[in-house]
Amino acid sequence: METILTVNHLTKKFGLLTAVSDLSFTIEKGNVYGILGPNGSGKSTTLGIILNVVNRTSGDFSWFDGSTSTHEALKKVGAIIERPNFYPYMTAIQNLKLVCKIKEVPSAKIEEKLKLVGLWDRKDSKFKTYSLGMKQRLAIASALLNDPEILILDEPTNGLDPQGIHQIREIIKTIAGQGTTILLASHLLDEVEKVCSHVVILRKGEKLYSGPVDGMMASHGFFELRSADMEKMKELLETHASFGKINSFNGTLTAYLKEEMDAESLNKMLYDKGIILSHLVKRKESLEEQFLSLTKNN
Ligand code: ADP
Ligand code: MG
Predict the structure, then answer these.
(1) What global pTM score does this model have?
(2) Which residue segments constitute the domains of the chain, with CATH numbers given?
(3) Ligand 1, atom 20, residue with closest C-alpha
């Protein structure tokens, strides 16, 4: 695997506030990464640091194989971390020609990128006539002009209507499909689930989980149980290796699995120990519930 970015024990303090705390993760080529966390969890600060617009307090990061300077590396990075801003009275084409000059890339790329984001037929419209979604798509086209190794987006669908959101997500998937690595920050679980292959979950600047999105979803579920002898049942499950957390609420026991087990096996196991169940349901925690339990304050 080819590494695009390595972040090591990164910390950022704003006075007394720790915005990013001892954060480490790696980005491998070809994957789509989401930094997921509620507002204020340190997503934008993290992106700012790796893009050299925010100074870190401690820790470090390195781009690619670690031998290129950040300044050189950032020439191979496309990033949109602010609201798209172009010259309002210039057309899409005119704006992108200017970007090509600044980035020193051939303007021949413009057609391909405008087609990619679905703006080729609006290429001669002035920027000020664009909807917010179109502005965001133009920003993506602009960031892609130099065929970057990685595209970085901060909350790419914020403020867009459902159709605009859908268009942006489809474009991100298309770009990823062409082999460009993507890193996006989002506070929307659903967005990360739909678009990303990997996720780094932040809460108050601290990493709660990093790994494949599938891994985040792969919970083994839990059982809801009732029997005449709740105490004995609770004791039994607490000492059983397949179970983790066990909660008792309103006369129902909720027992979370650490490994796979079906309802039949549990029923038999409890029956053999003299416990007869009056209620047995197996459930899987939804991704949303898992995210909420990961990010709630405790
Ligand atoms: P996110 O992008 O996840 O919403 P941010 O990285 O923007 O979170 O912010 C993380 C924390 O750092 C927040 O508490 C925010 O108020 C604080 N913060 C961000 N930028 C600054 C700054 N320039 N000065 C002081 N505090 C800041
Ligand atoms: Mg932010």
Answers:
(1) 0.80
(2) 3-216 (3.40.50.300), 222-295 (3.30.70)
(3) 45
